[in-house]
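4.2 Preliminary Data

To establish feasibility before requesting continued support, the project team ran the inverse folding procedure on a target of 179 residues. The structure was first converted into the token representation described in Section 3, and no sequence information of any kind was made available to the design step. The complete token record follows.
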């Protein structure tokens, strides 16, 4: 076998490697922070989606709002119910719809997890300028918006949140979710 051919990376190949490495590093950092409050990344994503949907929703809405697969969400919801984080009940109409609601325990955990989120800023602050962050966000959003329907069709939704700026410095400080 000629291994030398693997040294010549196409742009897409190298971008895939870089995005995967950075995604993995970001996931590990998030995982470390969430572990401190007793949550996994998947549970946090689901709890966050339920919160942005008003605290009461259904599995279909959670599936549309996250990049998680429906069967994965179902399995995690079953375990979350067993752990007292959510309740699942049937709607009166239609009978086949399931209502998912946060418990007080989950509300407390998501509040604790939310307090850990500023730690995620440390992941970026020392290596990117404010302008570089804006450029990176724009490019990543563009790639996501292009590829989401290619992979999932209309089954997943993606929203670009509204940026928030410091009124004095005009620096990007965060986002407001439109979910």
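Position-by-position output of the design step:
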């Amino acid at each position: 076998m000629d291994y030398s051919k693997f040294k010549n990376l196409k742009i897409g190949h190298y971008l895939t490697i870089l995005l995967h490495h950075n995604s993995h590093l970001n996931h590990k950092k998030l995982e470390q922070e969430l572990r401190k409050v007793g949550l996994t990344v998947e549970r946090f994503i689901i709890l966050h989606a339920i919160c942005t949907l008003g605290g009461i929703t259904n599995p279909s809405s959670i599936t549309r709002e996250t990049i998680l697969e429906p069967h994965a969400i179902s399995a995690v919801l079953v375990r979350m119910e067993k752990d007292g984080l959510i309740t699942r009940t049937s709607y009166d109409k239609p009978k086949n719809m399931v209502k998912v609601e946060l418990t007080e325990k989950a509300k407390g955990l998501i509040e604790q997890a939310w307090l850990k989120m500023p730690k995620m800023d440390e992941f970026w602050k020392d290596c990117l300028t404010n302008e570089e962050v804006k450029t990176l966000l724009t490019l990543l959003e563009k790639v996501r918006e292009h590829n989401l329907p290619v992979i999932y069709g209309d089954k997943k939704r993606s929203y670009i949140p509204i940026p928030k700026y410091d009124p004095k410095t005009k620096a990007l400080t965060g986002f407001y979710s439109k979910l």
